[in-house]
Write a structure and sequence with these properties.
This protein has 256 residues and is an alpha/beta fold. 38% of the residues lie in helices and 22% in strands. The protein is built from nine helices and 15 strands. Strands 11-10-12-9-13 form a five-stranded mixed β-sheet, with helices on both faces. A hairpin with a 3-residue loop joins strand 2 and strand 3. 39% of the residues are buried.
């Protein structure tokens, strides 16, 4: 009897060991299968300075890229950034990318397809207009030709402006170029990129605060696969740690 009991115990122990081994192959210490191979593939759209842009070395750079690399260091994984069209970022998660960071606003529509990290930045849409333009209010935008980057908040705003023509671009800078060349009446873009574009063309365009147009404050966050709580917890903790140790503020000072 004793030998049978001991045999059963050994069998149970072996099964537990095997199950534990199977679990270890599908997840790491953080419990996320996404992080198990030690590489975090990140989708971005490097056309949104100062959050993401193509650096002098031809690789994506900017605040978001620096932030996700710092998060990768906290998680002990290698970060590989994939540059793609902004409008395809959400659909790429789970296939071409593990997560996406691209100055992406948390919206209810996007939350149907992906989960989001804790917000890491607050922003508001701004309106860029030609230097000589008399546009000053939301009503002034009615019936106007307005440019934006495809799939961004500006895209959604323009759809609600009565009589406005929504001119969509893959790159925000292309919309700004058309604004300068007289093919658009205005461009709607987030506040920080708006400041960059205005600084580059101070005599040609003006930057109008979106709060004067009734635009609400938005929150940027990292898009992640739905239901991966372990990944979300790990990324959220990394963001908290980066804010606590001063790294986050260093990146703001460097890029903003």
């Amino acid at each position: 009897m004793q030998s049978r009991i001991m045999g059963a115990a050994l069998t149970a122990a072996l099964l537990i060991s095997l199950l534990a081994g199977c679990g270890a192959s599908g997840s790491n210490a953080n419990g996320s299968a996404v992080l198990s191979d030690g590489v975090l593939t990140v989708g971005t759209n490097a056309e949104f300075p100062p959050f993401e842009y193509v650096g002098d070395n031809g690789e994506p750079d900017g605040f978001d890229i620096a932030l996700i690399n710092a998060i990768g260091e906290k998680l002990g994984v290698k970060v590989e950034v994939q540059n793609m069209e902004f409008d395809s970022l959400v659909s790429s998660i789970g296939s071409k990318a593990d997560v996406a960071i691209a100055g992406m606003t948390v919206t209810e529509e996007r939350k149907q397809s992906v989960d989001f990290s804790d917000p890491y930045f607050d922003a508001v849409q701004h309106v860029l207009v030609p230097a000589e333009s008399d546009i000053a209010t939301y009503e002034d935008l009615e019936g106007k030709a307005i440019g934006c980057q495809l799939g961004t908040t500006g895209d959604f705003i323009i759809e609600e402006i009565e009589g406005a023509t929504d001119q969509q671009y893959n790159k925000a800078v292309d919309a700004v170029n058309d604004l300068i060349n007289g093919r658009l009446d205005a461009v709607i873009v987030d506040s920080n990129p708006a400041g960059v574009f205005t600084a580059n063309y101070p005599d040609k365009i003006r930057d109008l605060d979106g709060e004067d147009f009734g635009f609400e404050t938005e929150q940027y966050a990292i898009a992640m696969p739905k239901g991966d709580k372990a990944l979300a917890d790990a990324i959220n903790q990394a963001i908290k740690d980066l804010k606590a140790d001063g790294t986050f503020d260093e990146l703001v000072n460097k890029y903003m």
